[in-house]
Amino acid sequence: MIVRIMGEGQVTLAESRLAELNKLDEELLAEMEKGDGPGFRATLQALLAKVHELGEPLPDDSLEPSDLILPSPDATLEEVRGLLTDEGLIPGT
Description:
Order of helices and strands: EEHHEEH
Protein name: PspA-associated domain-containing protein
Organism: Streptomyces lusitanus
Shape: globular
InterPro entries: PspA-assoc_dom
Low-confidence stretches: none
Structural class: alpha+beta
Strand content: 5-15%
Largest sheet: 4 strands, mixed
Oligomer: single chain
Strand order of the largest sheet: 3-2-1-4
Distance between the termini: 14 Å
């Protein structure tokens, strides 16, 4: 699957790896519900770092349809709320 990180580009990630991102997605949702700004920021950074760790970057000149769009590392709590689905940032987890 193709994952886009807003402002950074795209990575290809095996769907089997989504389960590894689930814990961080759940933590992020909990921190957002509590309004925990520092916790939200740290978990968002950890989630994006995990995507980079597990995925392979696509070339900068490649433009593939994205299966999943994640916020930029500097996204605000409100911006991330706008990207959420009922399942969090990562559907199906």
